[in-house]
Amino acid sequence: MQPDRKEIYRQAPPDRGASSFIYPPTAGNIRFFVDVLRQGGVVAIPTETVYGLAGLALNQSACRSIFEIKGRPLMDPLIVHAANLDMVEILAEVPESLEIISKAFWPGPLTVILRKKPIVPDLVTAGKQTVAVRIPRNPVARSLISELGAPLAAPSANPFGYVSPSTPQHVASSFAEKVPFILDGGPCEIGLESTILDLTPRDRADILRPGAISQEDLGAVLELPVIQKQISISEQEAATAPGTMHRHYSPKTKLLLFEGRPAGIMESSDATVFLKRPENAGDANIFWLSEQGDTGEIARSLFSMMRMLDTKGYERIHFQLPESTAGGVLVAVRDRLQRAASRA
Ligand code: TXA
Ligand code: MG
C-alpha cells in the first residue's frame, strides 16, 4: 500500500532541496521520512556504501513495493538494516562469532548472513532460512533508523541489474517520481556495496561479496578461516534458472576490461578509463578514477564514472582492471568491473 501523501504533508511539511525529490537531512525531514516509512512507504536513504531503497523490513507490503519499484526478482533476498545489536537479535540467531565481528566492524560496511527468526517475512529472505543484516554507520541512516525504532529492508537504490547509486542524484535520475522521497546524505563515503559475510557455517566464514572490509581485515579478527567465494549464493541459484539473471552493476554501454595498457587502437567513439592519471591524460576520451591512484578514491568514483560515461553516447568503454594480486578494496573494484563487463 502506498502512503497517502496528503496525509503525510499535513503531519510534517517537508523541506525540499534544490532538486525536486531530494530532501536535506534536517530533523524535520527525518521525522517526515519516519512517517512515510511507518505508513508503509518506500524512500531512498544514504548509507556509507551506496544509497538504499528502504521500507519497513517487518511489513510485507512495504517490502513488496521495494521489489516492484526496483524490478527485482522475488528470488533475490533483501538486506535488513538495524540501528543496534538489540535490533539484530530480534531478527536473527546470533552466533558467538558475531560478537567479534560487531565489535570490530559495526556500525560499518559489513553485512552478515545469519539464521533468521520467524518474525522476518519470507518475502525479505526470498524464502531462505537465513537473513542478511547490517548496522550502517552513515549518520543520516543511523538517525533515521534510531528514530523509526524498527529495522529497514534496503537493497541498493538502482533498477535491477543497473549500476548502484553513490549520490542522491543517481537515485533521482533512475527513478524520478517512482521514488519521490530521497534523503540527502551527499556522495557515499565508500561508494561500493557492503562486504557480505556468511556466518551460518559454524567452522568457517564465507565472503559472498567483496567490499571495503577485506578478507585480510576479517581474517585478522576472526578465529575461523575466512573464505572468498566467487559469486553470491543467490546468483549461483539464479544461474541455474536461465533468463532470470542478467548482468549485474552494468552500464548500458558495452564495457571491456584491460590490465596494464589497453590493447589495440581506440576509436573516437570509445572511452578509456584508468585507475590513476595516465601519461596520455590530455588525449580525447581518456578518464581516470583517482589522480594518484588512491584506492579509497578509486572505489568511491567507480559507479559515478560508469554512470557518467553511460550518458555520453560512447560505443564502448574500456576499463582498467586492478591487478589480480591487489588486496583490500581493490578486490571489490575488480569484482564489480568483472560483473559489469560480463555478458551472462
Ligand atoms: O551496501 C549494501 O549492502 C547496500 C546498502 C543499501 O546497504 N545494499 C545492497 O543490497 O547492496 P542489494 O540488495 O543490492 O544486495 C544484497 C545482496 C544480494 O546479492 C542478495 O542476493 C544478497 O545480498 N543476500 C541477501 N540476503 C541473503 C541471504 N539470506 N543469503 C545470501 N545472500 C543474500
Ligand atoms: Mg544491488
Structure description:
This protein has a 9-stranded mixed beta sheet, sandwiched between helices. Strands 12-15-13-14 form a 4-stranded parallel beta sheet. It has a two-stranded parallel sheet with strand order 1-8. The protein starts with a helix and ends with a helix. Helix 9 links the parallel strand 10 and strand 11. It is 32% helix and 18% strand. The chain is globular. The chain is of the alpha/beta class. It binds threonylcarbamoyladenylate (TXA) and magnesium ion. The site of magnesium ion has 3 residues, from loops.
Primary descriptors:
344 residues, alpha/beta, nine-stranded mixed β-sheet, four-stranded parallel β-sheet, 12 helices, binds threonylcarbamoyladenylate, binds magnesium ion
